[in-house]
Design brief:
Length: 425
Amino acid sequence: MPAADAARNFHNDDDTVHFHYEEQGQGPHDEVIRLNHKWKGYDLDKEYFLRRLPKVELHVHLDGSFDPAILLAHVHEMGHDILPDEVHLAWDQTKLNVRSSVEACKDVKDFHSLCTCRGKRSLVDMLKCFEIFTPIVRGNFELIERLAYDFVQRQSRQNVVYSEVRYSPHFLSDGAHNIGDDDVKPGPIVDAVTRGLRRGEEDFGVKVNQILCCIAWRPEWAKEVIELAHDRRNDFPCAIVGVDIAAGEDHFNEEELPHLYTPHYEAFQRAQELKLNITIHAGEVGDSTYIRKAVNEYGATRIGHGYRIVHEPHVMEEMKGKNIHFEACPTSSDETGGWKYDEDKGKDWKEHPVIHMVKHGLNVGLNSDDPAVFDTSLTWQYRLAVGKMGLTKLCIVDSLYHSISAAFVSEEDKSLIRSLVDDYL
């Protein structure tokens, strides 16, 4: 179990929850949670249960977890010259000003706002956030190692006992912002991430493995991602245990975007030949056709998001029969527009796709996706599920066991993780 979560002084004032705990080697840590009047029936007993519950997270992006304070401190130390004036956005070939945007930030609060995406309900706007802050870390192995270590520490604070963290090593490499640049070296990035994760494992007691991502709009990286994952698959602790395609679903569009489709399709045929574990973003902004493609053609046993499946009951039945695991990310689904609702009427969390997926008997787990970009946490997803969606504690525990069963680890490791949950319950 993580060293964090030795509870002290746990109370609430109106719609604010205060939680204070001691973290081994780090001293006291305080967190303030503000809950408005809409959180009917959510009380301290539920909050305490969710906080102390040993958790598993299968869908969380490392670069979507970078602490803005660490990033900005590095910019101040090294100077704004480390940033490019602008970057070209691969999906539409437009330019995005980077250096001037960061220079305009007066403090950490401004920079945090620049790096987060709330209220826009757009996957593209979310992706633009990454284009702002990833140039700060590209090719900086020491900083990447530090950020990987920080990721494990923050997982420990949430009582996460097992996590699979995903990222594109190419996207964090020097030259990644230059479309068509062949001088992108992903191996040293994986080395740096692995060093940070291993130190974090040792210090905080959280077991972590890695998933390597292809990027939908960078097909030239796909083949190398698969081979790199294969080469590092047995490099425990913190090995590469699976592969993914992230940053959109346009690569599924064989007819209109064959230059994206063919390299990714061929790469994942290779992944299946190598018997790599496969999870793919699908059914987030694309329809359920892409979910079926991900499973039936690309070999996915897990689907990132998949919310659009609720509009196709026959596809839900098919995925239920195949025991496909859905990595649901509630806050993310709202912020990217993955959850479709009438914005004039407003959102009703009790009508969230996760509710319909659970009622249909699908295999669903809860995740934070990009906690720093969405200014959220895994624990907050559990709060939403109970306090806004109305899921019971039993449903939460079931989803946790689903995540454990779907994890890309050995049956022995799954048994050990289940025992931590069993002991708590």
